[in-house]
Amino acid sequence: MRISIITPSYNQGRYIEDTIRSVMNQNHNDVEHIVVDGGSSDDTVLILKKYPHLKWISEKDKGQSNAINKGFQMSTGQIISWINSDDFYEENVFREIAEYFDFHPECQILYGDITYVAKDGAFLRKVCGETISYESLARSPDIVRQPSCFWRRSVVDELGGLDESLHIVMDFDFFLRVAEHCQFHYLNKNLSFFRSYGESKTNARQFRQAREFLKVYRKHRIRMDRHRLWFLAVRVLDSMGVGKTLRTLIRPFKPL
């Protein structure tokens, strides 16, 4: 089975080579890596030109969701995933992923563990186990493990790509739609590394994220119970720069 990896990119020349090499450092011989760059002004394009095996374009787009949808359209693999240009894969996991899909024809989407690392790649924490379903996603959107998710092409063909009106939580919306129709299968193995660093989460981004989560809840007609209200409140507090202090004060009132 061919695995198609989509990487949206914009001015991530500092990290994108790690992403490219992580796709190369696999034990599966049929991998297609597509980089959709939004017209970077740093050295991203120079780096892309160093790797002739890549399929890539560099042009202005309408945001990350639009770039990823372009990659979906360019892809030819039976298995698809996307990984951002500052994240990277675990070495030698693609063969096991392809074999899982081959041996489990009923599987439409597969996920594994994810490790959070600092800007320099130093270990922060690992997230493993935990069942992903429509109910668990709707209750706790943070369990999405986008870089560690792989799905069959038929999923995109039947359900469509990303909602391009969403620029931050498009993965949450996409996986909710998938979970309405498919059971998530779990592979007990670390599949990817997510780079977590301060610049990736500005105060303005946190507020916008909360607004987009609310939009997705309404889109899917998900009832706003106390757990979801708490989830959104945390992001609004963070956007005001007082999240840590106020969360400490109101922690006793957090829903169980």
**What is the rounded distance between the termini?**
43 Å
Number of strands: 9
CATH topology name of the largest domain: Spore Coat Polysaccharide Biosynthesis Protein SpsA, Chain A
Can you give the helix content as a percent range? 25-40%
Structural class: alpha/beta
CATH class of the largest domain: Alpha Beta
- Count of individual domains: 2
Largest sheet: 9 strands, mixed
How many individual helices? 10
The average pLDDT is 91
The backbone outline, from C-alpha atoms, is: globular
Order of helices and strands: EHEHEHEEHEEHEHHEHHH
Percent strand: 15-25%
Would you write up a description of this structure?
By secondary structure, the chain is of the alpha/beta class. The protein folds into two domains: 3-200, Spore Coat Polysaccharide Biosynthesis Protein SpsA, Chain A, CATH 3.90.550.10; 203-253, no CATH class. Helix content is 39%, strand content 21%. Helix 8 runs antiparallel to helix 9 (226-239) and helix 9 runs antiparallel to helix 10 (243-250). The protein is globular, with a radius of gyration of 18 Å.
